[in-house]
TrEMBL record:
<comment type="similarity">
    <text>Belongs to the AlaDH/PNT family.</text>
</comment>
<feature type="domain" description="Alanine dehydrogenase/pyridine nucleotide transhydrogenase N-terminal">
    <location>
        <begin position="8"/>
        <end position="142"/>
    </location>
</feature>
<dbReference type="InterPro" id="IPR036291">
    <property type="entry name" value="NAD(P)-bd_dom_sf"/>
</dbReference>
<dbReference type="InterPro" id="IPR051168">
    <property type="entry name" value="AASS"/>
</dbReference>
<protein>
    <submittedName>
        <fullName>Saccharopine dehydrogenase</fullName>
    </submittedName>
</protein>
<dbReference type="InterPro" id="IPR007886">
    <property type="entry name" value="AlaDH/PNT_N"/>
</dbReference>
<dbReference type="InterPro" id="IPR027281">
    <property type="entry name" value="Lys1"/>
</dbReference>
<keyword id="KW-0560">Oxidoreductase</keyword>
<dbReference type="Pfam" id="PF05222">
    <property type="entry name" value="AlaDh_PNT_N"/>
</dbReference>
<keyword id="KW-0520">NAD</keyword>
Length: 346
C-alpha cells in the first residue's frame, strides 16, 4: 500500500477555473487506498470543500502548497500562482511548455530555479504515445451545444459555466430541421459533439479520416452546422477556404472549431485565425450568405462538474500507480527532463 505517497490538490490560480482534476469521490478512493490527500480551500472549485473533508482529505488554506513537505506531489490543472517563482516539489498539471508555447520558457525556468519536476498531464500516454486522460468529450459536447444554440439564436453571451442538465434543457427547448457535420467524429471530442447534437435533435453526419480522405466539399457545405473536432498533428488540406465564403450554394452558416488550432500550421479552417471567448462566443466571417465561427479554447470549463468528473475518473487509475512505477509517470517525466535540458542549454 503506498502509505508514503502524499497528494496535495491545490487551488487553481484563475478565478474563472471551476474545474479540478480530482473529485471528492476519487479523493475518497485514494484515501481508502492509503494515500494522504490534502486539499486546499478554493472559492471557485465546483466541488465544495466539505465534500473533500467528508472524503477523508486534510483541508488546508489556499496557496499553502509552497510549504508542503518536500515529498508531497502537488496536483493542479494549470500552472500555479506566480509566487514563489521557484518550484521545488514534484508537480502534476498541464504545463503547455514543450512546444514553444507562450510562457513555456518561463515555466521551465521556475523548475530550473527550484529543482522541482513536472509530470505534465498532457504527456500521460500509453507505450504507443496515445493520451490516457483528456478533457475532449466534454469539449466536443459543449462546442456542439454552443453551435446549435447560436444557430437557433438562443445563445446568451457572456457564456456561463453550467451543469449538463441545464445545458440539455436549453438544447431540448427548441427544435428545427438543421443538420450538422462533425469532423473527427470517432475521437473523444467528436463523440461528445455527436451526443450533444443528438440531445438537441439535430440530424448529424460523422466524418473521420476515411471520409476526409475522399473529401467532398459540396457535401460539407450542404450542412447547416460544422463541428471540427479533429486532432491534427500535421498540416493538411483545409476543410474550408476563403473561396467557400462567397459561394451562394453554401448552406453552412455556423462553424464550431473545437480543435482551435487557429494560429498553427495545422489549422484546417484557415478562414479563421482567432479564438473567440465567453464574452463574444461567435464571430462573423461572412455576411451573405452568413457564416459565423465559434472557436472557444476553454470549452470544458463550461461544464466544470462533468468535465472534472470524467477527467478525474481517467486520472484515478494512473494516480494509483504513484509513486512512479517506471511506466506512465516516467514517460511524462522523461519529456520534462528533455525540455528542461534544452532550456538549460540555451
Ligand atoms: N477547444 C477546447 O476547449 C478543447 C478542449 C479539449 C481538446 N481540444 C482539442 O480538440 C482536438 C481533438 O481532441 P480529442 O481528444 O478529441 O482527440 P482524439 O485524438 O480523441 O480524436 C481526434 C479524431 O480526429 C480524427 N482525425 C484526425 N485527423 C483527421 C482528418 N484529417 N480528418 C478527419 N478526422 C481526423 C482522428 O481519427 C480522431 O478520431 C485536439 O486538437 C484538442 O487539443 C479543444
Amino acid at each position: 500500500m503506498p502509505i508514503s505517497t502524499g497528494l496535495w490538490l491545490r487551488r487553481e490560480a484563475s478565478s474563472n477555473e471551476q474545474r479540478t482534476v480530482i473529485t471528492p469521490a476519487d479523493a475518497a478512493a485514494l484515501v481508502a487506498d492509503g494515500f494522504r490527500v490534502t486539499v486546499e480551500e478554493s472559492a471557485h472549485r465546483v466541488f465544495p470543500i466539505d465534500e473533500y473533508a467528508a472524503a477523508g482529505c486534510r483541508i488546508v488554506s489556499a496557496d499553502t502548497w509552497p510549504d508542503a513537505p518536500a515529498d508531497e506531489i502537488v496536483v493542479g490543472l494549470k500552472e500555479p500562482v506566480p509566487q514563489p517563482s521557484a518550484l521545488t516539489h514534484r508537480h502534476i498539471f498541464f504545463g503547455h511548455a514543450y512546444k514553444g508555447q507562450t510562457g513555456a520558457h518561463a515555466l521551465l525556468q521556475r523548475f530550473e530555479e527550484g529543482g522541482g519536476s513536472l509530470y505534465d498531464l498532457e504527456c500521460l500516454t500509453d507505450e504507443n504515445g496515445r493520451r490516457l486522460v483528456a478533457f475532449g468529450f466534454w469539449a466536443g459536447y459543449a462546442g456542439a451545444a454552443v453551435a446549435v444554440l447560436h444557430h437557433r439564436g438562443q445563445l446568451s453571451a457572456p457564456l456561463t459555466a453550467m451543469s449538463r442538465a441545464e445545458l440539455d434543457d436549453l438544447l431540448a427547448r427548441y427544435r428545427d430541421d438543421a443538420c450538422a457535420l462533425v469532423i473527427g467524429a470517432l475521437g473523444r471530442s467528436g463523440r461528445g459533439a455527436v451526443e450533444a447534437l443528438t440531445v438537441a435533435g439535430v440530424r448529424t453526419t460523422g466524418w473521420d479520416l476515411a471520409e476526409t480522405r475522399q473529401f467532398d466539399k459540396s457535401a460539407l457545405l450542404a450542412h447547416d452546422l460544422l463541428v471540427n473536432t479533429i486532432f491534427a498533428a500535421e498540416p493538411g488540406r483545409p476543410f474550408l477556404t476563403h473561396d467557400d465564403l462567397g459561394r451562394d450554394d453554401r448552406r453552412l452558416s455556423v462553424v464550431s472549431d473545437v480543435t482551435c488550432d487557429v494560429t498553427s500550421d495545422c489549422n484546417r479552417l484557415p478562414v479563421n485565425d482567432k479564438v473567440t471567448d465567453w464574452v463574444m462566443p461567435a464571430r462573423r466571417l461572412h455576411d451573405e450568405p452568413r457564416l459565423d465561427v465559434l472557436a472557444i479554447d476553454n470549452l470544458p470549463s463550461l461544464l466544470p462538474r462533468e468535465s472534472s468528473a470524467a477527467f478525474s475518473m481517467g486520472l484515478l487509475p494512473l494516480l494509483r500507480q504513484l509513486p512512479d512505477d517506471g511506466s506512465v509517470w516516467t514517460r511524462s517525466l522523461d519529456q520534462f527532463t528533455a525540455a528542461r535540458k534544452l532550456t538549460s542549454e540555451r
